[in-house]
Amino acid sequence: MTEGWAESTGAGEVSGTSADTRRPDGPEPRLYQAPFACVWDELLRYVRRHPSWKLALSDEDLGLISVMCVNPVLRFVDDLTVWVALDGNGLTRVDALSRARRRDFDLGANRRRIRRMLLWLDRALGPAARLSESAGTSEPGPPSEALPGAS
Q1: Measured at the alpha carbon of residue 83, what is the angle toward residues 65 and 5, in degrees to the nearest 5?
Q2: Residues 79, 57 contacting (CB under 8 angstroms)
Q3: DSSP letter at 51?
Q4: Cα angle for residues 66, 68, 71 (degrees, 5° grid)
Q5: Cα–Cα distances in Å, from 91 out to 25, 49, 65, 81, 129?
Q6: What is the pTM of this model?
Q7: Per-residue model confidence (pLDDT) at position 7
């Protein structure tokens, strides 16, 4: 893994300083009956609303958004990675990972960050756009190896 990313605790588990929609105990990923471009644009709009966040990467072809999130008071830095992709049914899936860079605790900040982002996206796209996870395919989200800097 790249220096600065939280280390794995083994057996594929990430330490208690992260939240990941791809894990069973993580926040629920989103599946939308909305065009990829609409979901993508709303996510970028959400990121730009946060003055203490720095957009590190925005690659629409890869469906990848990477953001450095700085706590304005304590100056802690967390990394937020968002994947947007079409599933086999043409539905737009959103997965996210938020993790602390250099500390052993986050007091739930990463889980809240993802939850707030997804709730905002739900409202921005409208109630008819969101589908339950079981409505789509059983395709998993992006693999853990898709993390920036993973080898």
Answers
A1: 70
A2: no
A3: T
A4: 145
A5: 23, 26, 18, 20, 10
A6: 0.76
A7: 33
